[in-house]
Design a protein that fits this description.
This protein has about 240 residues and is of the alpha/beta class. It is about 40% helix and about 15% strand. It is built from 10 helices and 8 strands. It has an 8-stranded parallel β-sheet. The two termini are about 20 Å apart. About 40% of the residues are buried. Bound molecules: pyridoxal-5'-phosphate. Pyridoxal-5'-phosphate binds next to strand 8 and helix 9. The site of pyridoxal-5'-phosphate has 14 residues, from strand 8 and helix 9.
């Protein structure tokens, strides 16, 4: 794909973001666009950065590490499932981990963050639709998990929630899940205890981001609409 396409795609997404935000009276500038770069190489990623992208998301640790040195300075987001034994490889490289869904994982992040003298920003991944195939904590268990992390992980700062909606042809069908996660998010925004710092609601991908924005998302994770279809055969190598 040439630069022209990536540039046009990003412009068109920004336009859609603007329309979705304005349709519910929100400021489009409050929405952070994360370019999801899985299965795309450093060259394409750098093109996207040249087109103004400041945040990129990878869902696999190995892939992130392979690209990390080859990509221009940018904020890195780990958006996929994170195994406890891989935390140590990314702790000093990523700015936000979107996929914390267990106390065990949070405690490992806490331990590694302490070793690096940093506070790690994370989101809690909520599996609102309770799909067996997806990671994430159920809506009902989210507050408990947040409480346990607050109590035992001083080097982890919870910045909000993330959700991956079920795959539906009709994006209206996922609206209730986004609304449910927004409702949990709102319980923590402005948390006066200072023990969480809720700012980010990471919801919405290529197929559903306009609805996610209408329901309150302020981080959208978009891959295909920027870079085109992914070649999954490459992944199997
Ligand atoms: C791949 C991926 C995305 C982006 O999906 P697209 O449909 O390509 O926009 C967003 N979030 C996560 C967690 C992903 O793995």
């Amino acid at each position: 794909m040439d630069v022209g396409n990536i540039r046009e795609n990003i412009e068109s997404i920004r336009e859609t973001i603007k329309e979705a935000a304005e349709s519910v009276g929100r400021n489009p500038e409050d929405i952070n666009l994360i370019a999801v770069t899985k299965l795309h190489g450093p060259e394409e990623i750098n093109e996207a950065i040249d087109c103004g992208i400041k945040d990129i998301g990878e869902n696999k640790v190995q892939e992130l590490l392979e690209k990390y040195e080859k990509v221009k300075p940018v904020r890195w987001h780990l958006i996929g499932h994170l195994q406890t034994n891989k935390v140590k490889y990314i702790i000093d490289k990523v700015d936000l981990i979107h996929s914390v869904d267990s106390l065990k994982l949070a405690q490992e992040i806490d331990k590694r963050a302490l070793q690096h003298g940093k506070i790690m920003d994370v989101l809690i991944q909520v599996n609102a639709a309770e799909e067996e195939s997806k990671f994430g904590v159920s809506s009902g268990d989210t507050e408990n998990l947040i409480q346990e992390i607050i109590e035992t992980c001083p080097n982890v700062r919870i910045k909000g929630l993330m959700c991956i909606a079920p795959l539906e042809e009709d994006m209206e069908k996922v609206r209730p899940f986004f609304a449910e996660v927004k409702e949990i998010f709102d319980r923590y925004v402005g948390d006066e205890s200072g023990r969480t710092d809720f700012r980010y609601l990471s919801m919405g991908m290529t197929d559903d981001y306009p609805v996610a924005i209408q329901e309150g998302a302020n981080m959208v994770r978009i891959g295909r609409a920027i870079f085109g279809a992914r070649n999954y055969r490459q992944e199997e190598k």
